[in-house]
Amino acid sequence: MTDLSLAIQPLKKYFDFKGRARRTEYWLFFALQVAISVVFNLFQAAGGATAGIATGLGMLVSLGLLIPSLAVGVRRFHDTGRTGWWIIFYPVVYIISVFAFAFTHPHLAEGLAGLDPSTLESGDPEALTAFFNILGPQAILWVVLPTWIASLVTFVFHVQDGQPQPNKFGDDPKGRGVTSNEYIF
């Protein structure tokens, strides 16, 4: 049986980047964030004054949930015996991929300068086709593929079971194995 109070545990440990977090805590908090996002998106889709209020509140809530999201992610990595610095793996791969793609394809700026951003935003099929023709398959190899692999790696780490014994980040949150007060031979 799942203890749903684990969904709000990251809010109680807002700035706590030490220790370990169970898979259940991490994924329930993730599900809570998705549910909150869906509610705000429904209000935004309704249009009118509620859409503007929902957008503003949604941004504030997202900003407020950023620190506990990072903290529970770091603690989740700790539970699997990894350093919390893995939390920056995906963003670093993404940034490096985008810059590597931009610097190795200098002609992109010229091609993209000829596109009208408003037609892209409106979803004009011809503008979108032109945009993707300019980027070409190289964008998939340089940006999409590396970031997809990085997200897959971090996903696998987050779904792995935690170490069943104390590790350098603390005792097992499930209470398995020996405690830190016992000798480990």
Describe what this molecule looks like in 3D.
By secondary structure, this protein is mainly alpha-helical. The protein is 66% helix and 0% strand. The chain is built from 7 helices and no strands. The chain has helices at 9-12, 23-46, 48-79, 89-104, 108-113, 117-122, 125-159. The longest helix has 35 residues, at 125-159. It is flat and about 65 Å long.
Which short descriptors sum up this protein?
2 domains, single chain
SS summary, helix count: 7
Shape: flat
N-to-C SSE string, H for helix and E for strand: HHHHHHH
How much beta, percentage-wise? under 5%
Q: Which ranges are low-confidence, i.e. pLDDT below 50, for 5 or more consecutive residues?
A: none
- Helix % is 55-70%
What is the overall pLDDT average?
86
Structural category is: mainly alpha
How do you describe this structure in short?
By secondary structure, the protein is mostly helical.
SSE order and pairing:
Blueprint: H1 9-12, H2 23-46, H3 48-79, H4 89-104, H5 108-113, H6 117-122, H7 125-159
Helix pairs in contact: 2-3, 4-7
